[in-house]
Amino acid sequence: MELSKEEKFLLLCYTELFNECYDVKDDTVFSADVKNIKLRHIKMQNACYIFKIFGLLGSNYIFSDNVTGPASDEVANLVSILDQKKNKIKEFYQNYIYNKQFLLINFLGIPSSENKKIEFFDEICIELEEIVKEPYGSSLVANMIYLIFNNQTNSDFEEINNYLILFGYENQELNRKAWDILLHLKFINHEERTNELKRRIQDFLKK
Fold this sequence. Notes:
The structure is a single chain. This protein has one domain. It has ten helices and no strands. The protein has helices spanning 5-18, 31-53, 73-82, 86-94, 96-108, 117-128, 137-149, 157-166, 172-184, 195-206. Helix 1 (5-18) crosses helix 2 (31-53), helix 1 crosses helix 5 (96-108) and helix 7 packs across helix 8. The model is unreliable at 190-194 (pLDDT under 50).
């Protein structure tokens, strides 16, 4: 069965954020592989959530809180199907450059002075490049965004940091680094959220 456009875009999001292929060719029933599969699925959930909240993933996935990052049943089902298409995933990567350009324009639109979504997509990947290399770094970022986005804190680092520590994210230096990255991406405003973020919250709550 061919990959759907949605499945291809999820592969693109995963690949660009983590700078690695979504590799299913070596999956087995051995415990080490099961752990790798679980981690791959967590990272896909994190990627989908991050890009959705930043307004770059249009699908109406519903996410709920989870210690390894917000999770969606819709994404989990899609990934389970995707994992069965190993040969098609390989074909996707064989034509990756073409697929990337086609999907970015198809999902984010043609770049223009008014449409800078592709530029923003690239900026997110570059800004998060180092932190997502850390063990569960993408989970940290996704959980931090979830706390901010769902009004569970006042967008104050110390309060968010306390929540993250409760979730097991005890590396406060890494927590601060994630906060600073989101601040640089203009996701956080020290006094109040930006008007754009407020609009996204309102749109999110209507779904």
